[in-house]
Each structure stands twice: as C-alpha cells, then as structure tokens.
Amino acid sequence: MKTRKILAVMVLLLATAMCMSACSKKEKAGGKLVVGFSQVGAESSWRTAETESIRSEAEKRGIELKFSDAQQKQENQIKAIRSFIAQGVKAIVLAPVVETGWEPVLMEAKRAKIPVILVDRGVNVSDDTLYSTLIASDFVAEGRMAAEWMVKKLNGKGNIVELQGTPGAAPAIDRKKGFEEIIKKYPDMKVVKSQTGDFTRTKGKEVMQTFLSSAKAENVKIDAVYAHNDDMALGAIQAIEEAGLKPGTDIVIVSIDGVKDAFLAMIDGKLNATVECNPLLGPMAFDAVKAALGGETLPKKTVVKDSVFDQTNAKQTLPDRKY
Ligand code: AHR
User: How far is the CA of 25 from the centre of ligand 1 (A)?
Assistant: First the structure.
C-alpha cells in the first residue's frame, strides 16, 4: 500500500515536471523570445506603417510577436496587456491610445516583472518606473512647426479651423498646445473652429463639411486648416473640393505625419505642408526590449527627430519616402 502511494506521488511529480517544461517551451515558442504588442488600431496610414515596422523588425530578429489591435479603445488595450501577462510574455510594447488610466494595469505588468516599452504616445502616471522607456516624437514641437509654417504662408493673418486628433491622446493634446503657443503671438491669426476628427479620413471629411457649412451660415471666411494628422487633412481636402473650392489655394492646409499620400497631395497642389512624424519605430523598440531584458536602465524618453516638407520639395523627396 505504502509503495503504491510512493509510486503514485512519483508519477504525479514526473507529470508536473513534464508539463512545466512543455509550458515554458510554449511560452518561449521553440526558444523564441515572446513579446506582446498592444497597438492603438488602424485609424491612419501612419498607424499601419508603425504596425508594419514593429512586425517586420520582430520577424527579422526571430522574435515571436503577439499582436493585438485595440480599435482605438483603451479597455481593449488593458485586456490585451492582461492577456499578455497571463501568457507569460517576456516584454510588452505598448502604443497607448490615451494618456491617462494606465496605473493599475502597468502595476500588474511590473509585479509580473515584465518590462513595458512605450512607443509613439506617452502616458500620464505618477510613478515613472511603471514603464521602461518611451520612444516617440516631440508632438508639441510638431505643433509649433506646423504653426510657424502657416504663419509665414498667411503673413500672420487669417482664420484657421482645426481638426483635432483623438480626445485624450498625447498627440492631440500636444499638437494643439504647440500650435496655440505660436499662433497666440499673432493677434490677427485665430482658430475659429476646432473639433475632433479622431485621426481618421472619414471623420476629417465629415467635420470639415460641418465647418464649411457653419462658416457659410455665419459669413466667416476659412483661410486655413490645421489637421493633427495627414489622414484628416486628406478627408478635409475631399470636403473642400465637394464644396466647390480649391484646397491648397483657396484654403491653405497644413497637417502632420508625412505619409506618401500627403506627398502626392502636395505634388497635386492640394496640401500645402506636412510635418513629419516618423512611425518606423520597430528597430528602436526592440533595441529597448533587449536592453530592458538585459537589466539596463533606459532613458525615460528617446525623442525621434522630425522635419517639415512642403510643395517646394515634395516631388524630389517622394521617391525616398518609406511610408
Ligand atoms: O500617435 C501618432 C498619431 O496617431 C499619428 O499622427 C496619427 O496618424 C495616428 O493615428
């Protein structure tokens, strides 16, 4: 009886050991490093380029990437992060849709000893040890660059309508801030209407249609459009054309991102300028993953440098554009 009991315990121990080794093999996917990537969504061409950069860099490095598209919803990102933790990923790359509300889930990742690398957008947390590093553009500087370009073009005078990004998102908050910082120095330049177009072409068009009809009813002339991204500007271009006006001539349009379609619109004379925001963050993101897993302390923010393009250099620059 006693021998049988000992045998049963031994069999149980052996089975547990075999299962543990199989499970850990699964988590490492045949020796591969497993990383979770929680992406905002697919709202713009910029976003698609960022996803592609991260996916292809993971593949190049032999990393297994668990990808989750949040469809612009924070609750989906929180669910994805919890699922990554449960699956035992070694690191998490997060492009957070909005700035606030991340403390609890980031705390869960920290407790599980999973480093979180933020890409593109930042978070607003009281404890910055909740993430390893942020790799992103300086969105306030982008807003300033857009405003400076517009001030020059309009000689410091004109009515501007603003298409804002997703409410609560770092680029929407900071691009507005940087733009206003410059515009307020010019009393004859005014933002007469401002509304969110959620970073999408469809909503950019819808909001621009509303701006055009309400401006007509109020007898207000729209001199310029400032769009927080190219996709909304491209939507606005359609609305302006449908209203019988010439985008780029009757109404000056400046946006942010620097995607290929924006270059094509500049070549066609329909968009006046775009401020580049580099989405090709894959190589830097996985360098950061490697460093964090190697126990290195990373800088809290690495700023990606951006520049301005307009109709004077769009044609010669287009062949070199990667996104
Ligand atoms: O966070 C970067 C912004 O998000 C890009 O400007 C925009 O196109 C995207 O949706």
Answer: 37
